Amino acid sequence: RSFATAARQSLKVGLIPADGIGREVIPAARRTLEALGSDIPKLQFVDLDAGFELFTKTGTALPEETVQALKECDCALFGAVSSPSRKVTGYSSPIVALRKELDLYANIRPVAAVAENPEDKPNVDLVVVRENTECLYVKQEVLTPGEHGLEARATRLITERASRRIGKMAFEIALGRPRKQVTIIHKSNVLSVTDGLFRQTIRDIPQASEGRYDGVKLEEQIVDSAVYRLFREPQIYDVMVAPNLYGDIISDAAAALVGSLGLVPSVNAGDNFVMGEPVHGSAPDIEGRGIANPLAAIRSAALMLRHLNYAAAADRIDKAVNEVIREGQVLTPDLGGSSKTEEVLDAVLKRL
Amino acid sequence: RSFATAARQSLKVGLIPADGIGREVIPAARRTLEALGSDIPKLQFVDLDAGFELFTKTGTALPEETVQALKECDCALFGAVSSPSRKVTGYSSPIVALRKELDLYANIRPVAAVAENPEDKPNVDLVVVRENTECLYVKQEVLTPGEHGLEARATRLITERASRRIGKMAFEIALGRPRKQVTIIHKSNVLSVTDGLFRQTIRDIPQASEGRYDGVKLEEQIVDSAVYRLFREPQIYDVMVAPNLYGDIISDAAAALVGSLGLVPSVNAGDNFVMGEPVHGSAPDIEGRGIANPLAAIRSAALMLRHLNYAAAADRIDKAVNEVIREGQVLTPDLGGSSKTEEVLDAVLKRL
Ligand SMILES: CC(C)[C@H](C(=O)O)[C@@H](O)C(=O)O
Ligand SMILES: CC(C)[C@H](C(=O)O)[C@@H](O)C(=O)O
Q1: Is B146 in Cβ contact with A159 (below 8 Å)?
Q2: Residue B54 lies in a domain
Q3: Choice among B105, B137, B237, B310 that is catalytic
Q4: Where is the Isopropylmalate dehydrogenase-like domain (chains A, B) (predicted)?
Q5: pLDDT in tens, B23-73
Q6: Are residues B239 and B295 in the same domain?
Q7: What's the CATH number where B147 sits?
Q8: Ligand nearest B226 Cα, by number?
């Protein structure tokens, strides 16, 4: 799940706030990292451009320099991208492109409620492990004239290789959790070939693991009923592993259970790079008002550190964030509070 | 939304219980129809076979005779199909096939909570209008060997024609509701061609309607955030129109909001035929125990009648079902009660 701890002299972090509230929450995550002091190597930040607004100004949503610069970084934090409100020729989502360019094949999204009492088990405590490079996100689409008007076709790609590596990631993550349960999310009752391959490939992993995954319980759920049960009995889930699009939908659904998308972090992880990213979007409705919830971005920074094997530093952040949520005094409007982004950040920093 | 009321002498209803609790709830729906008396034409029932169990016995999930017999019926009720627990060569879901064979292009799924007081507005009152013939359900899948193992590809088809007719259906349904709002569910920030076509085709409908849809408010939501907001603020939705797979997921998600999948009805509707179908599955875990909730099937019968223009009869059923739910005395275990299917049916019949 995490990289070897080659003792690093410094940590080079690419920062891509991109659009909307991405520009408000990424600076908060940065300041949290800076406040960690000697728990992590000396930080070096690299400011990088991408996003829909950049596209409208320059015609490019993801400049080649950004991709190249990221390759020189140890890790990165990404904010959020706006979606064009109508079809814009030549525009393609930079976050989807980055995941592919850097082969960040796993999108790891832990969704956990904060129990009132720190000793209690939260009622929601799951991780969505979303395949991040294929499914309908390969964006192979064609438009052709047909007998009765236009016809559009998209390809949904599922490979054995990608299914196996995301499955292994899910098993590894499950090994590190008390319940040690993996639930495969699929729709193989309709997509018997593509989702059939996804499901069977993951089912076959334990056998080839030389006993490593013997303690992991393997379950499965069809995606529609998985979402239904997620709302009704979220406690049945531990690690949910899903193809790209189902993972996208499920993680938003799970976020609704813990009070706000503004709380849910993620990392996009590959074998050599990790990029933190809050699960929320660019939120054009509240952009620029200083009331965006910085906690998802701050938690994404923690998750990124955890992935780089700085568990103690990550724990410090998570503990501080959980305290702020538990105390309930300094919260942004999405959580029913009236505090500003800055005030929430300060509350976290004080508890670090 | 509904067929011309060519005064029918009799109503020929195909019954396809199929698998699992389908066999327990379809008889309950039949008995409800039979209890309506002179509000509807003389009923004639035709028992028909289909399902996964039939497949395991005979090698056919949907016999040609069933399809032919349905073509002689005025309408039908379908129960539920079991999903094979592993890949079964040659098996393909009969419900998906039926929707296509009979060109039942719209899957209409009203999801409404029953307010405590009959005068109050329920907090959830929406209709999912799901395109029912294409998207990934065209089941064009191929498996090929690749450089790093197997590769599977599925085609997602979205046509202008199907998008327009489902869009029109959504507008028509909205016209008949107090809020008159249609929300297009899509993911055109990633699938700019396929979902772009779906979205744009529906956006273009009002212009070509000669004013018919002027009073309908048109909104849109990206599918992941649509599911999030469905949980957080279901009252923002009235009519949700969606491509096939999103519609499948959204309707299950919405069902979670009203207490049980066992309450949510649907019809599969085409221009010449309508087939009621509870949204729930075959529920192998409770099959044969006589505790399946018959209300979704009973409501599906009402919805079918409504579609055939027997609104008064449909209203009688819906009112009786709502009373049973509101009273809360006779409910199956999925709703926290301890009554049997038969008892719930009797309670409905008594209130008809
Ligand atoms: C913005 C969009 C392309 C993206 C996705 O669909 O992956 C977002 O919803 C997410 O979950 O990160
Ligand atoms: C059983 C399955 C093929 C079906 C579907 O996916 O359409 C079911 O989930 C439904 O919603 O009717």
Answers
A1: yes
A2: yes
A3: B137
A4: 12-348
A5: 999 999 999 999 999 899 999 999 999 999 999 999 999 999 999 999 999
A6: no
A7: 3.40.718.10
A8: 1
